[in-house]
Amino acid sequence: MAIAGRPVAVRLRARVPALTTRVVARLLSDLPVYAELPHEEIAGDIADIVQHNLRLFADVLEHRRAATDGELAQQRDSAAQRAEEGVPLDAILTAYQVGVAMCWEETAQDAGPGDLPAVLEIMDRILVLQQQLTSAVSGAYLEARQILDSQEHGGRHALMAALLTGEDLDGFTRRTGLRPAARYLTMTLALAPHPDETGTGLPQVPGAASASGSGAGAGVAARRKIRRIRTALDRFAGTPALTALDASGGTVLLPVAEPPRWDGPGGLCDLIAEATRAAGVPITAAAETASPDGVPAAVARNAEIVDLVARTGRAPGLYRLSDVLLEYQLSRPSEALRGLAGLLSPLDAKPELLHTLETYLGHGLDRRAAAAALHVHPNTVDYRIRRIDRLTGLSPARPADLQHLSAALVARRSVQGAGTPGPARSFGGYERTTGA
Length: 436
Prior knowledge:
Layout: E1 2-3, E2 6-7, H1 8-14, H2 16-30, H3 32-35, H4 39-63, H5 73-85, H6 89-108, H7 116-153, H8 155-165, H9 169-176, E3 184-191, H10 195-198, H11 215-237, E4 242-246, E5 249-255, H12 268-279, E6 283-290, H13 295-311, E7 317-319, H14 325-330, H15 335-342, H16 351-362, H17 367-374, H18 378-392, H19 399-417, E8 424-427, E9 430-433
Parallel strand pairs: 6-7
Antiparallel strand pairs: 1-2, 3-5, 3-6, 4-5, 8-9
Helix pairs in contact: 1-4, 2-4, 2-6, 5-7, 6-7, 7-8, 11-12, 15-19, 16-17, 16-18, 17-18
């Protein structure tokens, strides 16, 4: 099939990269919801599906046939993802219509009077393809929304709420017919914001420079982040996870037959690493396996651990109680706690000394590494450590004093954080505020 003596399919394939850029720019200019999508999504998923559709149209014209079911799989997957991100169906269908119209303009622009038969056939093929795309996209979108609505309002939501609030589970099973698993891996996650939620993402597509960080765009970016984390959790568990997540984090319950391994291939550390890569943001997590009756207490401990990790400046990653035993114990209210914190009170007016002490201990008493982190000369670190000794009577060079200094730093952070509620965590529609 040719126009102006040139095969239409060959010409269209050659124009795919440039035409993709034009179609994406048109979507951004004509459809506000697309202009508010994250840059990562526009240059990734959206551009990919546009290219796929253009190449599919070239195949349809070249072989003079309708698209096959398999050739529409990527469009169905894309529609399901947009449904999970809350993009309206009418905007998606309009985007496809814009792409089809621009594809038609590209193929017919050089047509002359003698090309009328080819033009009519191309029009017929493109109308058939548009009908197929509309059907596939609408069906996949509505199916995904139905599943999401069922999860949000159905039995899984009720089961999670029952587990987290300590409801009588025997009575819950009799009432609903839903039986809890024998044990659950409980996790609390703290999620950093993605650049597309804060407007710091770099534009990758012309016309999208000011999209990220706006209300709807930030919301899409947050839902995209959460969806990717849920996918990693579901893959790990082999079954849909019970989750109550928002943009800042939340609670996860995974039914498990046995407590999962912590380290090694396929362990929980690998799970958090995979979720971090998928979401593109640092994740701090705490995990504990518990029986159904023990879920509320395990979740509360996890939340305390995550808060302690944040307060003590530790790196993102997966933690358990044994990783923060000293901090956890010292965060318990007592008179000894304030006394221990008071060992460092002579440094209150010398913040540079306190920061040096924290950095020096954090680098394993390596004066050169501490100096590099502080951007000072190693001799300056030595001088400040001597000043700390003179003011407090404690020196990291003396083993007994080193233990007191480490504990005093932890106690000081705990005392300073006392009375400041921790982050609110969502528990299946309920909220509890955690604090040390």
